[in-house]
């Protein structure tokens, strides 16, 4: 015998016939449009799980009929970018660096790529834009330890400075005048004062000038303007790699510094090194 359909006396809605403690369940089915959307979503999820990696397992996951992975998509994008750049990079690798600079199209490509390469490989030491830091030379000024021509920069990049396991690396070594007993503390202080006076930071000092001529001029020159062949810095241009305070200069004279730059020739290809050299040269201090 069919169940009699009752209606709730408050809402007027039909009830399901279920009742608990005097509370009757209303018969309010979900809207059809909502159900249809739900069914479509379920169907979409099933199709997606079949086509794409979706279901985890103990060691891996389902591969999906399309074999798609995000890693594969990234690798494909990178390969497409490499293929698009290959024509330019091949030309840069074959030409000498001056010829690359003379070609407007190649030079634009090298500058754009060099900016990215610099951020990836050089900025941790030389800072963004090549502004440098204590112990790391600024590449955006006109002060160069080993020369600022394109070929000079390329050579430095390729073989580094005091880089181990590279016979063509740039080498220089300043004596440790105090540590090796070559000068006494009072003499080192006099030399430091003279060195600072070369750029107007201190008063002239006759004793310091005499000691400088005897011990330092052979590398830095009588006027303290340096020698690029030896990697001896200019001491008269107000540019200081390890600080200009008297204590900093005394420390340098006493114990010296021997910073190391990697030889990128064993890590980066020819095109990359030339692109970096062109970018550094264009930072503002190239010659």
TrEMBL record:
Cytochrome c domain segment(s): 109-199, 203-284
Cofactor(s) the protein requires to work: heme c
Keyword list, A-Z: Cell inner membrane, Cell membrane, Electron transport, Heme, Hydrogen ion transport, Ion transport, Iron, Membrane, Metal-binding, Oxidoreductase, Repeat, Respiratory chain, Transmembrane, Transmembrane helix, Transport
Pathway field: Energy metabolism; oxidative phosphorylation
Transmembrane segments: 33-55
Assembly information from the UniProt record: Component of the cbb3-type cytochrome c oxidase.
Job description of the protein: C-type cytochrome. Part of the cbb3-type cytochrome c oxidase complex.
Protein name, entry field: Cbb3-type cytochrome c oxidase subunit
